[in-house]
């Protein structure tokens, strides 16, 4: 065997290994929701979860109209943007939706998701998000049917299944979300597109493996992550992120 052939085989293997590593790295994403962070030191809280191995910052926007709570807007998004390179995943629980989308795009959001009931024109809102350079997601409340996906599967980038009713952190996981995840996963497979499938609400180390088995790839966790560890410990989030990952490893991917 000539040296060239050997080198060719080695570089082919290296390439395969690289693909495997990249795929392995991107299979499951953990997205701590800053709703449960300490807002008095939000920048640090964002940096610390990412340093502990989280992948995405989940940013819950509530308007005291679509949901009975009021949280944060584009100003806070631009304030945390320089703190991390991690994608900012904006979950809009606001009605109407369209007016505020360009503001979040300018504030550095990477993904913007909205509830279809909150938009008069779902297709237009998806387009608006993408025209502003962000990935677009549709969010499904526990009682919202997946039929909203029927005519937009060729466009959307993310499906977010709510496993609690939106409005508050720290609620209990609603188990029927698992069946909904399975149905959404089937629709994604049939579409042949690369669409993220995210769960939001009541996710913790006891249920994350089961959720992954139902087809989920992106896991929002608010109180489970930000409620963990001692406030004085700069590495307080290392163990909870590691524990979530080790549960995910049990899901087999
Ligand atoms: C609920 C929010 C969630 C919430 C998750 O309306 O969309 O992102 O913060 O919090 P936990 O993980 O505590 O249920
Ligand atoms: Zn959320």
From TrEMBL:
Residues involved in substrate binding: 33, 91, 167-170, 200-202, 222-223
Biological process annotations from GO: pentose catabolic process; pentose-phosphate shunt; reductive pentose-phosphate cycle
Pathway participation: Carbohydrate degradation
Catalysed transformations (reactions): D-ribulose 5-phosphate = D-xylulose 5-phosphate
Pfam families: Ribul_P_3_epim
InterPro entries registered for this protein in UniProt: Aldolase_TIM, Ribul_P_3_epim, Ribul_P_3_epim-like, RibuloseP-bd_barrel
Cofactors that this protein relies on: a divalent metal cation; Co(2+); Fe(2+); Mn(2+)
Cofactor binding note: Binds 1 divalent metal cation per subunit.
Active site residues per record: 60, 200
Key words, A-Z: Calvin cycle, Carbohydrate metabolism, Cobalt, Isomerase, Manganese, Metal-binding, Zinc
PROSITE patterns according to UniProt: RIBUL_P_3_EPIMER_1 (PS01085), RIBUL_P_3_EPIMER_2 (PS01086)
EC number(s) recorded for this UniProt protein: 5.1.3.1
Gene Ontology CC annotations of this record: cytoplasm
Residues bound to a divalent metal cation: 58, 60, 91, 200
One function term, GO molecular function aspect: D-ribulose-phosphate 3-epimerase activity
Family: Belongs to the ribulose-phosphate 3-epimerase family.
Function: Catalyzes the reversible epimerization of D-ribulose 5-phosphate to D-xylulose 5-phosphate.
Protein's recorded name: Ribulose-phosphate 3-epimerase
